[in-house]
Write a structure and sequence with these properties.
Elements: E1 2-4, H1 9-16, H2 19-30, E2 33-49, H3 54-59, E3 69-84, E4 89-99, H4 105-117, E5 122-126, E6 142-146, E7 148-155, E8 166-169, E9 173-174, E10 181-182, H5 187-192, E11 195-200, H6 211-216, E12 230-232, H7 243-253, H8 256-338, H9 343-350, H10 354-361
Parallel strand pairs: 4-7, 7-11
Antiparallel strand pairs: 1-12, 2-3, 3-4, 5-6, 8-11, 9-10
């Protein structure tokens, strides 16, 4: 069975635009039952002129001068979810980020900080009324609370993470003295800390250990066909409760407009990857040139140090020879003086000064 490849942002967005399918998909990841879901897709968009892309050339008539723009998205979805719990219901904010190209964590941190600061991530609760002496003083009937945040990351590249398809990152409350752990519950802990689920698409291959991994196998890129926009899957591999997700991706594959956008997205990503490879190559060549220059500089410094050492060695040898010569002159002068030769003549023969001869006599 052929489905649209959800690794493409266009297909993934199409999948989640169906609220019922989105609830099913997110509930499976977080392991909780979402009863209500509201969302607004937040995307970074880049308008790309695809006039000269390979797909454009193949589809447009020869000589066509039309210019088409594709919106290349970096998917980020913000949801407000009502979740059924053992004691009732709770409302949380869910931030889902999906990335095909390697990104620095700064982007993820930036989005998360915006989510924490957003007023959309708050809700109103009714305050308990308290008796006051001043009956004319009106207390506000409601107060603002912050929702707990869930983060979901879907990555199509390797990171410095354990080689596991789905990782859950949680927080604990621990007594620093005893090491005892306590339930990480309550407004303060849940408002300032968040749970995260990290889905590593490259690790999904041939891993079907539970229902969630079976569901996420719709991302397994080993099932690509000759057309990278389409996956060939066996729908019987998926649990019955997740068949609607598969059907939604089948519908996306049958939508010409969606498939067209996926093809253009592929072209644009290939162009970006070419640019990245060129930049990486230029960076490597620059680093190589810098290393070569540094090596030459180090060699020059060593040569300079060697020349300086040789100069000092020659100077020391010269001083040593001079001292030896002076010592020999003193010995000759002493012998000549002992034989009664006048000081002036001794000084002339030994190249010593009269003052040095006088010191030698003393």
């Amino acid at each position: 069975m052929h489905i649209a490849n959800p690794i493409y942002d266009v297909a993934f967005k199409y999948l989640l635009e169906d609220k019922r399918v989105a609830k099913l998909f997110l509930s499976a990841i977080i392991g909780e039952t979402i009863t209500e879901l509201d969302f607004s897709a937040q995307e970074n968009v880049v308008n790309v002129d695809v006039k000269d892309t390979e797909t454009k050339k193949a589809i447009e008539p020869v000589g066509s001068d039309t210019i088409e723009k594709i919106i290349l998205t970096v998917c980020r979805f913000d949801f407000s979810a009502k979740i059924k719990t053992e004691t009732g219901f709770k409302t949380v904010g869910i931030e889902l980020q999906k990335s095909k190209l390697l990104s620095g964590i700064e982007r993820f941190r930036k989005y998360l900080s915006v989510r924490y600061a957003s007023q959309d991530n708050t809700y109103l609760v009714t305050k308990k009324k308290m008796k006051r002496k001043d009956e004319n003083h009106d207390e506000p009937e409601t107060q603002t609370k912050s929702r707990q945040i869930y983060c979901i990351y879907i990555l199509d590249y390797g990171m410095d993470l354990p080689p596991i398809p789905v990782l859950k990152v949680s927080y604990i409350a621990e007594d620093v003295f005893s090491g005892d752990e306590y339930p990480a519950k309550g407004e303060f802990l849940e408002g300032l800390h968040h749970l995260s689920w990290i889905i590593q698409i490259p690790q999904l291959k041939e891993k079907r250990r539970n229902k969630l991994e079976k569901l996420l196998s719709v991302f397994d890129q080993s099932a690509v066909t000759d057309n990278r926009c389409i996956l060939n899957i066996d729908d019987t591999d998926f649990p019955e409760e997740y068949r609607d997700i598969v059907r939604r991706l089948i519908k996306a594959k049958e939508d010409p407009k969606t498939m067209r956008k996926m093809e253009l997205e592929d072209d644009t990503l290939n162009d970006i990857r070419k640019i990245e490879r060129a930049m990486a190559k230029a960076k490597a060549e620059t680093e190589k040139a810098k290393a070569k220059a540094k090596k030459a500089e180090d060699k020059a410094v060593k040569a300079e140090e060697k020349a300086k050492n040789a100069e000092e060695k020659a100077k020391n040898a010269e001083e040593k020879a001079k001292a030896a010569k002076t010592e020999v002159a003193f010995e000759v002068a002493l012998k000549l003086l002992e034989k009664g030769m006048p000081k002036d003549e001794v000084a002339e023969m030994t190249n010593l000064s009269v003052e040095e001869i006088n010191k030698l006599i003393k």
